[in-house]
Design a protein that fits this description.
The complex is a heterodimer. By secondary structure, chain A is mainly beta. Helix content of chain A is 0%, strand content 49%. Chain A contains no helices and eleven strands. In chain B, a hairpin with a 6-residue loop joins strand 10 and strand 11. Chain B is globular, with a radius of gyration of 13 Å. The termini of chain B are far apart. Classes of the chains: A mainly beta, B mainly beta. Chains A and B meet through strand 5 and strand 9 of A and strand 5, strand 6 and strand 10 of B.
């Protein structure tokens, strides 16, 4: 079945450690996105990539990094510079220049920093 | 840039009652409109979308929404809710030919027996 797979679903880390969240899609979509979700704040865009080897910062990119070496993969690294990393992280994808703008979401990864 | 306001952060209703979740948006360009649903600890699923044409859009699970251009609104409705509709609902807008989707803060719908 086509879809987006995020791993791990739950992750615990100590303060000051970098962590990497995985996002893989087999929908053959060109564009991929990372959102952060906090209670009562909706979804905020961290980074997005419209094509392989290219990505742009979203509204809250500070303390995060990404790479897009393959079309199907868009990993997110939460660095020690991110002041409040505990959150629910959602990966999404869409066809590039999609004529509907619809996003397809993974199941999310919940990061807790102790 | 576009923005979305969901007017209610929480909506409690009794089972089999009707419900309306309100969404207003602002944008300087034409947009597509979406409602997504999120169950606890899961990703977002598309409920329905408005692209063009008829302003009344029907989605999954008996939900529908009406696009009102003059009021820049896209309210979500269901005539009779079930316990299983308890979830968080997000309204979103995306400009034509641009994947810059913006989300509202969400409305938590709680259906009580």
């Amino acid at each position: 079945d086509g879809g987006i797979t995020q791993s791990p679903k739950y992750l615990f880390r100590k303060e000051g450690q970098n962590v990497t969240l995985s996002c893989e899609q087999n929908l053959n979509h060109d564009a991929m996105y990372w959102y952060r979700q906090d209670p009562g704040q909706g979804l905020r865009l961290i980074y997005y990539s419209q094509i392989v080897n290219d990505f742009q910062k979203g509204d809250i990119a500070e303390g995060y990094s990404v790479s897009r070496e393959k079309k199907e993969s868009f990993p997110l690294t939460v660095t020690s510079a991110q002041k409040n990393p505990t959150a629910f992280y959602l990966c999404a994808s869409s066809p590039r220049g999609g004529d509907t703008g619809e996003l397809f979401f993974g199941e999310g990864s919940r990061l807790t920093v102790l | 840039a576009q923005s979305v306001t969901q007017l209610d952060s929480q909506v409690p209703v009794f089972e089999e009652a009707p419900v309306e979740l309100r969404c207003n948006y602002s944008s300087s360009v034409s947009v597509y409109l979406f409602w997504y649903v999120q169950y606890p600890n899961q990703g977002l699923q598309l409920l329905l979308k408005y692209l063009s044409g008829s302003t009344l859009v029907k989605g999954i699970n008996g939900f529908e929404a009406e696009f009102n251009k003059s009021q820049t609104s896209f309210h979500l409705r269901k005539p009779s809710v079930h316990i299983s509709d308890t979830a968080e609902y997000f309204c979103a807008v995306s400009p034509f030919n641009n994947n810059d989707m913006r989300f509202g803060a969400g409305t938590r719908l709680t259906v009580k027996p």
